[in-house]
Amino acid sequence: NAGVTQTPKFQVLKTGQSMTLQCAQDMNHEYMSWYRQDPGMGLRLIHYSVGAGITDQGEVPNGYNVSRSTTEDFPLRLLSAAPSQTSVYFCASSPPGQERYEQYFGPGTRLTVT
Amino acid sequence: AQSVAQPEDQVNVAEGNPLTVKCTYSVSGNPYLFWYVQYPNRGLQFLLKYITGDNLVKGSYGFEAEFNKSQTSFHLKKPSALVSDSALYFCAVRDDRTGGFKTIFGAGTRLFVKA
Asked: Which of B43, B51, B102 sits opposite A108 (nearest CB)?
């Protein structure tokens, strides 16, 4: 198993540009989520999904869209990038059916918006 | 609403000494509690969790954590620190009543173990 994979590893955008961060997992996990990590603020939940076709907002959803058309993939779309979205983005997944399971994290995408 | 507090930005300890990284939480229902570790330029790795049962939970790399319901705490401990334990540690909580799969993380505590 490759686990949770994220692409790209690094990205530089200009203000106003849009892009999609990719996340995929091959463990048949139902639950997937996106976090951003900023110094001194820990990880903040952007959006999450409990299964294909079901998504919900986290703590900081503004400026981001998600969709979940398959169990494996959970892309995060930045609609119009802003410097405040400069951050490290992590995707994570959990096994099906139980809230008590830990999350498996991808290696992250470092995004800079100029 | 769920919340997690890690009151120390950094913890310094000498190699061989015991270490404690503190975490307190707030939830409406019963908590599911987790500790994760992050090494430089890497994603988070799971260390241990408390779901129910014994208040002392043992995890990876010799770490353990004690759940204290009255103090709403879940402190991470290790009897003898190693230089290789130096990393960023995150406490996280899920609320079984309102949060579902929604996980809230603390701000993180940087552990520095000196040789």
From this structure: B43
Reading chain B (115 residues) residue by residue, the pLDDT tens digits are 789 999 999 999 999 999 999 999 998 888 899 999 999 888 899 999 998 888 999 999 999 999 999 999 999 999 999 999 999 999 999 877 655 677 889 999 999 999 9
Subunit contact B49:A102, Cβ cutoff 8 A: yes
Most distant CA pair in chain A: distance in Å? 41
Decide if B80 contacts B63 (C-beta within 8 A). no
Residue of B nearest to A90 (CA): B43
A28: left (phi over 0), alpha (psi -120 to 50) or beta: left
Interface of B with A (CB under 8 A): 6, 9, 32, 34, 36, 41-46, 49, 51, 90, 92, 94, 96, 99-108
- Give A22 to chain B, closest Cα distance, Å: 15
- Where helices occur in B44-111 by DSSP H, the ranges are none
Neighbours of A37 (CB within 10 A): 21
Q: How far is A18 from chain B (nearest CA, A)?
A: 24
